[in-house]
Amino acid sequence: MIFTCSFKGGRPFWAGALAVIGAGVLVTGCSAVGSAAPTTAKSASRPWAVSTATVLVLGLRFVTQINAATQTADRHDAVQRSEVDSGNGLEQGVAFAKTPRGLTAYVVVSGGVMPIDLDNHTIGKFISIGTTQINAIAASPDGATVYVASGAHNPDDPGEITPVDTRVNGVGQPITVGMEPDTIAFAPNGKTAYVADDDNFEVTPINVATGRARRPVRADMGGTTASIVFTPDGKTAYVGAAGGQITPIDVSTGVAGTRIPGSFLSMAIAPDGKTLYVLGAGRKVTPVNTTTNSPGTPLTANAANSGGELVTSPDGKTLYVLNEYGDLTVISTVANTVGKRINTSPDDYPRTMAITADVKTVYITSRVGVSTFDTASQTIGKPIMLSGPAGEVAIAP
């Protein structure tokens, strides 16, 4: 659940699940940075084939693929800056899809989307969306469809979701949704997509098969910019807004439940779906029982000031909290204990973080590059330096 150099509301840190890049139309080919230049062979011939992680970093004017075996920047593509905006108070500009051509990253660029074949290291044909006001992008679980949200803050101009068929990279009929849609999330079965707008606190369900929008659900979560997570069984969607609260929605009926008390900055759901973790004001991380939607006893992250981003490890055993000054707190969900505060990027603002599926490495971006956190030794590795400020780090599922 992912890019401009502007900040929503002037915030210096992007709190939530994704972050900021400046993307755009590709203007140069790739050049090697760090170790040897990448090959054009299939993934089995990659020099970093020992790692299953495909790590992508998006910056002000570049897209970089990280060699997860050597922790160096292997592929660097220069791009042209483009303004995009999304939910979670973050900028969102990449979606991964497994297509007939291989693993593809769809990157938001000026006026549309650029597909990058990560297996063959090739750039596809530019896909025009017809507007520069692109707010969010997401791929369906089966990789067949990519949704692109667009629309400004204008009551006379409703927002749109443009579907992209990844088999042919063709654009389908736009779907009308609420004003200024800023977050897209697909249900685990891929049959329904939820779109949250930035102004009316409404969520519009979309039938992916028919491409039709259903009646909007009033979430009333307050705050600004939305975040959406589904339980793994797809029965419940939790919708929150920065500075507001979280509302559970019954996916089968489209009925919003009682709001969960407490403030909201970021949230993450456990892989087993039994617990929703909510990061709120005062650095409090509150576990919420998804059966009863009742909050449990909160834990306080050992991070200065307010926390900004929360992720859970793929095995569900650990939570990671990152604040605006680069302080990382590790919380054990098994022992229900809070670890020590670890500074990931001294004297620099962090951007976002992502954890590999093997739970071995957390990647954290900052203005100067990418930091790696070894989960076994609980130590920060040598920074991976880039040619410019880094925005979002995204790892392909």
From the structure above, extract its key features.
397 residues; mainly beta; Lipocalin; Thrombin, subunit H; 2 domains; five-stranded antiparallel sheet; 0% helix
What report would you give on this structure?
The chain has 397 residues and is mainly β. It folds into two domains: 8-261 and 351-395, Lipocalin, CATH 2.40.128; 265-343, Thrombin, subunit H. The protein is 0% helix and 47% strand. A five-stranded antiparallel sheet has the order 1-4-3-2-38, with no helix packed on it. Strands 5, 6, 7, 8 and 9 form a five-stranded antiparallel sheet that branches. It is globular. Mean pLDDT is 78; it is low at 1-51 and 81-92.
Biggest sheet statistics: 5 strands, antiparallel
Radius of gyration: 19 Å
Structural class, by secondary structure, is: mainly beta
CATH architecture identity of the largest domain: Beta Barrel
Which strand order spans the largest sheet, edge to edge or round the barrel?
1-4-3-2-38
CATH class group of the largest domain? Mainly Beta
Q: Roughly what is the average pLDDT, rounded to an integer?
A: 78
Query: How big a fraction of the residues is strand?
Result: over 45%
- The backbone outline, from C-alpha atoms, is globular
Number of strands: 38
Helix content: under 10%
The CATH topology of the largest domain is given as Lipocalin
